[in-house]
Write a structure and sequence with these properties.
This protein is an all-alpha fold. Helix content is 82%, strand content 0%.
Length: 95
Amino acid sequence: MEQGLIYDICGTVASIGMILGYLPQAIKTIRTRNTDGIALPTFLMMGVGSSAFMLQGLLHRPEVLWSLFLTNLVTTVCSLIVFSIKIYNDYFKRK
């Protein structure tokens, strides 16, 4: 198998795994608004990491790595939503 094809397959599998790993937690949190079992630093750091990977995908040369960018765009948005709900629940709603 050509090395480029293996590279693309690994990237696709990683993208699908990241999104499928993130979405269930994000959907559950958005629906229930329950953030009791979520650690705030975890989602903050996951959002920072996803944002950095998103930038890496955009800045990659000679071509943009769209799979890296799009996957991490989804995970960054999910992280921001969950993080926002967590902040609201912990610091505004319960006071």
